[in-house]
Amino acid sequence: MTxxxxxxxxxxxxxxxxxxxxxxxxxxxxxxxxxFKTAPDRLGLEHVRQYQAHLFTDRKLEAVSVAQQLSALRxxxxxxxxxxxxxxxxxxxxxxxxxxxxLSREEVGQxxxxxxxxxHRVCILTLYATGVRREELVQLKISDVDSQRMLIRVxxxxxxxxxxxxxxxxxxxxxxxxxxxxxxxPKTYLFPRKGAHPDSDVPMxxxxxxxxxxxxxxRAGLEKRVHPxxxxxxxxxxxxxGEESVCG
Length: 248
Fold this sequence. Notes:
The protein is mostly helical. It has helices at about 5-15, 20-35, 45-55, 65-80, 105-115, 120-130, 135-140, 170-180, 205-220; strands spanning about 145, 150-155, 165.
């Protein structure tokens, strides 16, 4: 761990920010430095403005994602480097107001069937059936699945709060089948990082979940804008194709 990364991590921890926010902020600064191939403390606000344009024009990120990247860089400059941040010179991206895309039951079925692996299929099922965020999904541990009470414990989610979500019989069966056939078997995290060393114990990256959903939507031929957050826009009981109700 570099001196700068350690210093930023300490500043984030002092403010008791969530693990999700901490990971996102550290990754954002790392990508900023990689883009310019220069240590981030040697870069300035002009570089931030160039990077903001790159995020929009080259990476095609949406305004909300660019705003998140800028928040991370603002924290880095203000709190870690103790430098000024001229807000008037760094306009916040204008975020369009859109109604959320909602998938029909048939489209959900197409999305699930279009996953390119059992792992990605179960990830999409879990996102849809529980409504967890992708950052919360990758942090789920085997011990968080409570088959006796039919609940999944989400630890330190948004706002650093724990909560329980309903575990449906169908999802429980899918998770058990996934665990039995996984090679190597998950040890701690329910969805470990693919390609990691067999003895390592690290969770899947949240970006991998985003890619899995996006690519499944493309293979399914869905014309709607589909990403992990899309699967959170369902109120009440969630019905997975193939069962009556996710709530049993």
